[in-house]
Amino acid sequence: MSPKAQLGGIYPRSEQLIELTRSYDRAKTDLDSVKKQIEQDTLDLIKLQADSGFETFSDGAFAWQDQLRPIVESLDGVTTGTRYDRWFDTNTFYKKPTVAGKISVRAFEPRNFIRTDLLPRTKSWKVTLPGPYTFSELSENFHYPSQSDLLHAVASAEHEIIKKLKDAGVSRFQLSEPCLVYRPYREQAPSRAELDNALAAIQKTVDGVQAKFCVHTYFGDATTILPDLLKLPIDTVGFDLFETDYSQLKFETAKKLALGIIDGRESNAESPKWIAETATRVAKHLTGGDLVLTPNSDLKFVPRKVADVKARALAEATRLFEEGR
Amino acid sequence: MAKLYPVQEIGSLAKPRWRTKGLTQPLSSKDLVEAEEWAERLGIPDFQDRAKQLLAAQQQNDRVRELLELSTIYGLRLFEQTGLDNVGVGGEQQRVEMYEHVIRGVEGMRVLGHVQSFDYKYFNKAVAESKIHRKHPIYLQEFLDVKKNAEGQLKVPITGPYTLIDWSFSGHYSGGRTGLSLKKQKQETKREFLLDFVEQVIRPEIRDLVDAGAEWIQIDEPAITTHPEPADMELFVEGWNETVRGFNCKFSDHTCYPSEIGYKVLAQYAPQLDKCSHLALEFANRDGTSLGVDAKHREGYRDLEYFIENGYDGEFGVGAVHVHDFSGHVPPSSGKEVGRNILESPELVRDRLLYAAKVVGDPAKIWANPDCGLRTRTWEVTLAKLTSTVKGAELAREASD
Known about the structure:
The structure holds two protein chains of two kinds. By secondary structure, chain A is of the alpha/beta class. Helices cover 36% and strands 22% of the residues of chain A. Chain A has a single domain, classed as TIM Barrel, CATH 3.20.20. In chain A, the strands form three sheets. In chain A, strands 1-13-11-9-8-7-5-2 form an eight-stranded parallel β-sheet. In chain A, strands 3-4-6 form a three-stranded mixed β-sheet. The longest helix of chain A is centred in the N-terminal third of the chain and has 22 residues, at 31-52. Chain B has 13 helices and ten strands. By secondary structure, chain B is of the alpha/beta class.
């Protein structure tokens, strides 16, 4: 089977949308104009995926203000104050969730997460959420007695959210867990016990939901955590090829592997040929599962026109990979 | 004996509307109403003559030049009025902001487009499309204007090379590496890009500034504490040491808003920074608001200990007032909350300075400053905060007598 290309996470806003949102921020544009352009950005990305031959579609999450916000806004017990924190080692920021009460899921619109009204019914839809470990790690806990209690409360809440999104037609979920491999704000890597707890929470999040799940790590080397992730009851495991030394990998698996093979933090457009050749080299270290070619992280760290070139290259590379077999 | 607890500014000051508007379009006398009010408050006696010149300027270049010098004079007078010992460059009125201002002066760099910073805020991000070099002096004209018009000591803040390359795409520098892991390729790319930026852009700039009479250059490196890995910290040190090599000038580092472990890591490497005789750091942001000179009350300043433990023996510019939005409890003796600002009392500034001096073990090594540039505060708030900082430093001196 040939590898598939997939996008995930937040895709960069177009210059038109950026201009409108800035204007809205200065009270010079109304919200309707912003919403219309968000819709247009979404349609443009859908067209790009259709034209390039993607089979699983992402909607670009153009309305998301950061990777955690829609989850926060769907929960009781969690708020965001005025504090922004740096998103790992990037020059971008997120509003830090503050957990001040028992977490529960409030009534929410699936459209806050994914534009089901715009995505084509003939394709499968993918939504990217922060995994429970990363969400709890990046939150401030003023309620639960321990970080572990918070982690499992988040997992239960995300489980509910995912079920509702599944009912709305989403068939594929990416749970992004960068904190499993990269915590530049901490001195120590997670302990074995902490990792086991994180894996248990991920399992709780996906348990019993009939959908495809990918746990994707980025910004750090996934070499040591991959064997653990491959044991999870999920469909796909993803990792950042720009941080993971794949020459050290050697394993057999029936699971799909999502190679984060285009760099969401650099503007250089990887050529389809380079992507296909690199994927072929990585594949030699792995036995079994199919490959999925993806960006290593959200593409929001590059301007829109750069992201578009990268996305097209990803799709083209899947064809070259197949021809090269 | 030198004055204890001298006070400095750190960088940018909010830009007045007339300055921003005048850069792109002609001004009317109505646009200058605010400037006239402040001219009276700040003591700018030749305002009327300058305003006439501004309004009469036919060529955009003439108008812009006049405008930039005038706004610099306003910044200097504002700082001078508060009693600062070092007025920097008058609030960086001649710069777009710390990143783009430099990038526009570099051949080989092209602004690619906007990237989200947070919510509906974005920044323009550039890529190195070819080998880079400096197109023209970047900070020199501003320094010459400041030198001509300032009455106090000066310091030139510049954006550090590590931050500039960290916030850019490496483009041209990424090519041609094979046989290494992608991670190692990225590290080598970063090093080549950094050292070229130092050699081709930053060192020529420092040469010009020093030749023009600059005696103190503050290198702003906010990006460094976002990459606490040894490989990046070693690269930062290498870039820094290459930057300052051979120059006879005081150098300081300003790094603010680190991650939880950012200052701890920076402290390990600070002693290796050649000629870095001063570190200006942010503390007020994470400190409590009650008075006191013990560790319990001054929790926000504890990271200073790491620098001492690691043997850094230079001066410290201690962030004694907050520069962003504030919400929280402020006891009356510590100041007051006004809108989205905290106006710290001189007593709170005093206690922060005295505690810092206690940790460092030598009050002669302590300067007072805001956490960072005050560009997000109004001029009214800036005046209040800096005046309080100066008074707080006076109180600290009295307490040290």
